[in-house]
Design a protein that fits this description.
By secondary structure, the chain is α/β, with parallel strands linked by helices. Strands 16-15-14-13-10-9-18-17 form an eight-stranded parallel β-sheet. A hairpin with a 2-residue loop joins strand 19 (594-601) and strand 20 (604-610). Helix 15 runs parallel beside helix 16. It is globular.
Length: 673
Amino acid sequence: MQKYTLTLILGLLTLLLGCTPKVKPDPQALEKIETVTEEKEKESTEVEEKKEDPAMQKYPDGVEPPEYKRIAATGQSRVNDKRIEPPFWWVGMKNSRVELIIHDYRVRGYKAVTNHPDVRVIKVTNAPNPNYLFVELDISPRAAARPFKIALTKGEDVRTYDYEIKARRSDPRRVQGLDASDLIYLLMPDRFANGDPRNDSVEGMLQTGVARDKIFFRHGGDLQGIIDRLDYFSELGITALWLNPVQENDEAYESYHGYAVTDHYAVDPRFGSNELYLELVEKCHARGIKVIMDIIHNHVGDQHWFIKDLPSEDWIHQFDEYTKTTYRAPTLMDPYAAEADRQQMSDGWFDEHMPDLNQTNPHLARYLIQNNIWWVEYTGLDGYRIDTYAYPDQDFMADWGKAMQEEYPKLGLFGETWVHGAPIQAQFTQNNQLREGYNSYLPGVTDFQLYYAINEALGRQQGWTEGISKIYYTLAKDFLYEDPYRNVLFLDNHDLGRFFGVVEQDFNKYKSGLSLLMTLRGIPMIYYGTEILMTGTGGAFGEGGRKDFPGGWAGDAENKFEAAGRSAQEQEAFDFIKKLARYRKITPALQSGKMTQFVPVDDIYVFFRYDADRTVMVITNSAPEAKTVATQRYAERMRGFRSARDVITDEVISDLSAISVERNATRVLELIR
């Protein structure tokens, strides 16, 4: 900028005088001009920053992001909220042992006993912080399920705590797991529906009130609002609900999304209660809908009770100065990776107010595993989606997956793997032999590779590997997985721009993407509002798309939960998903059936899903003009069929030699003998 300023001054002098100036400019004067120019530019930038969209305000007035500093484990001078976690346990678990974490003032050095004859104290471990004690219990399978006492003794001092072991519940609808027959609906509880305005603001929490005009503030959605809309999910054809995290997020800012947990054993009171979450699961199960809990092992919120009184300094990863993760997952398996890169990827923090947990600490590792077992046993939920799966210690993640599957063989598990490249993604899944001596015990992942491929197919001209060809090449790498049918497919989610906006509100592309989503291998997932053409983008993690569902709040101008509140195109979109979902539900060929794909040619991609009973032909035209597809090339899968029925329009095609497809469209055809 300084050079351009000097050149401009000389140029003006040349124009005014008609010649090159003979007097050399005073350097001090030029320096002064340049300084003033820089200050003006700075002022202009600050003005532009102040003009930022108020809807994207991140921090409430008077709130600043926390300043990073190391946290010592010396112990608070007082403990106001005594805790034992897990808060209770069960008789008859496959692993009869449970480790309690007791948080109370100066309990280090105490011995522990119980007054239950069939519950024995196996081990007591002190923590560096004197306010913690780890007590391992062994619960006999013949133990009576009842309350009992745990006594801590040190000399003449005795402290007594109430505890309870419960009987396990047996109900075939509990812990059903997930498979390719499911259609998942992802929703953000704070943004879906407000069923109980009384819990919009909870006194004593760090962020109070609602501000629906601001993306980063709370809006008031809750569990009751979801319970009130269960008929809506059934009508749409949804078989599983995935809620963004519901545990307490008592943070001063960005407390709405759920990913900064401050209490692992409590639902955020602004969403409801543990009892209400249990009610949600049971009412979903009564309707044939499964429930997926979103969990985070990588980090917590900086206001978590155990961060404010850290059990040990190695409970979290700490640095001399704030160190952010690199987000570079390939360093975990890169044979040439620098150790420094690998360490920063795993140990660096995700955000200033999200301390990074150190799962190599055995007590923390056990705490996290037991917490996830507790929620399954307490509620009967059907699956876990693991946030930021690549970031925690990978040996811990393997131990976690093994423990979950041993206790609950049917439990659905899939991890968020926001990575690039099928080999990188596949290495996080189980039984693939891609990492020597390592097994993740993770059945499935969020399939970002197919997300990239579908979006590219809808937005880019076909090349050798580009455009529609990318779907073909992505699926051709499925040999990397033990079972790619366990991967979760999606067109968008809470961290991404909304799909209808990404395809520039092209309705043909919208329907084409959904047709691919519902017919390709795997477990399809749709993001709340996709069925009514919601749009939105912006922010580092797609925050601009985290909008309220119209009609979820009393007084909303429109209610799109009802057909009367939808536009004609929105209703067409809703009906399109509904019809595809219902057809998929009654068609095992689209769930567990085999798949044959043909190399895309001239913007046309064709694949077949089939079993002994049905064959479904899917034709995608990625060209901007309609095409007629000659079918002789696909004879090996079409032989013996005389006609086809369009699953969406119900049109019967009697001549299968050539099939017409609109521009940027996908046809789903059931072949008829």
